[in-house]
Please model this.
Amino acid sequence: MAAEGCPGGIATAKPGREGWAYEELWDLAVEADGSGTVERTRYRGVYLLYASPVKLVSVARSDNLAFVRKLIISSKCYKIKQLNKSDIVNYFSNRMDEPGCVDLRLRGKSKDLIVEYNKRMGAEVRKARKPCNRMVVVEGVDDIIIVAVGKVASCGPYCTLVIDEDLERHYIR
Model:
């Protein structure tokens, strides 16, 4: 059953470790927010975390996820049906330090954003070739888009964590 509203995060599993990643993410969501849930998407190894993004930040910083490849936590979530694609592209393109520090992973209906981005930026989307201090990550699953602009950190031996800088301000150490 699909959860209502926008997720507080999106995660991808290490290939072949989808079941273990799901369990790790479920534990993370419930620890962060007692009513937190994780939804499997129709894309293998891609999960939506429904929990408070602010609470997810504190738990994710202290967890060591062994089976998750990437965890993106953001308070910026859009439903394509409710928002103009160019508005989403405006939001993240205006916050970029360097065009090379963009990571777009779009699946299903959300792939249309790449066309809008290319039109606006006058260049094709490329994966960052060098380490970036501040990364713009746009993850999409069908009509859900999560945007995070922030520093890249580790959430485990092979796990990359990006927490939106707006949430970092709320995080109490």
